[in-house]
Amino acid sequence: MNDFEKLSKIFDMKPFDAKKDIPKALPLAKIEETSDDRKESDFDLTRETIRDLINTNNDAIREMISIAKSSEKGRDFEVAGQLMKTQSEVAKDLLDIHKQLKDIEDDKTTIKTQNNILFTGSTSDLIKQIEDKRKEVVDVKPKE
Prior knowledge:
Elements (H helix, E strand, L loop, with lengths): L2 H8 L7 H4 L16 H34 L2 H36 L13 H14 L8
Helix pairs in contact: 3-4
């Protein structure tokens, strides 16, 4: 009788078979594009993921606080505090993605000022304008 069988008998448990008793991991869900605009679908996916994290963290925080209260150990309260800090950072990330999307949309709609000086006319018109400007300039000789 090996050690595992002895422990199983002591604790009145059936032996553990690693090949049968460990559940297989669920396959990862494939993320498909939901719209033609990739930025919008990425934004939606990111927003949904962060909101799921917020909800999951809320449950974890409640559970950790109840554990900390029942155990009255400082380390448990420290872990609960770290979870709350992480939760606030995730909430900030949610706001940041909204700001980033707004900035991207603003970049599309903002018209940049472009100052190009363009002369429309013939070369003779341009020469005439230059000569007219030369006549306006007063030539002043310094006093000796």
